[in-house]
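Technical note accompanying the year-one report. For the benefit of new consortium partners, we illustrate the data format agreed upon in the data management plan: each record pairs a sequence with a structure-token string. No post-processing was applied to the example shown here.
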Amino acid sequence: MPQMPHAQNATAQISVINESTVLTDADVTPVVIALQQQVTNDFRPIWGIDAELKMIPQGTQPTAGSWWLAILDDSDQAGALGYHDLTPDGLPIGKVFAASDLKAGTSWSVTASHELLEMLADPNINLSVLVQNANTSGTLFAYEVCDACEDDSFGYQINNVLVSDFVYPAWFENFRAQGSTQFDRMNKIQNPLELLAGGYIGVFNISEGTGWQQLTSQKTLTNMRHRGHVGSRRERRGVLRNLWVPSLPQRKIVTNAQHYRQHVQMIEQRREKSLTDVA
């Protein structure tokens, strides 16, 4: 069921930067096209938030003043290259750890969709919804639009690219009755604040002082500091804003990436030589 967007925002300019060693620009480009279609056709009509995505080939500079969606190997590579909590201009940045997804057997394109949509919905990673159960107690739910339904099995195809399901604004409105409206794009969720299998959401009990924790679909709590990749949205939500670190200038990142790839290549050559010597 279509829903009126909560607000109309200016169109965000997103530079999709490929610095992964496991994906070529040719691998990333069709995913960027699919993500643009998802934002324009599926996300914007519901959330009233729009974006223009631009593919940035390896070794080139992103558009000045743009937000970044960086395709990386893993959180170690992110740190080595200098991708931190914000762009050098202090603007939002999302990170996709493609090698980590491939090792885990999950879809990096779903992760890219997930990170993009959540960056658009809450670019400063500081929005939440209060579910109040008493005058002096209640729980904050993080304003993350893909966590509840993030599992690959709930995604959908755009031009043969798998993208993430996402929740509608009604998911955060706990007055809604079961099945009374559409709660997510794929219509798998039947109740507000419901978590599908494999889903989770950040919660903050305002009276217990335990900080942000992760509520899973099994209704268990895990401290988010122990679950989020370094630099991920989950990890950053639990870090004081004045401790966030700007990323290095892209020219420096490109240089670091060249050194990183040379280092990876050297490790591979040593491994191959070792196997040859053993044989």
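Partners are asked to follow this layout when depositing records. The CA atoms of residues 104 and 221 lie 22 Å apart.
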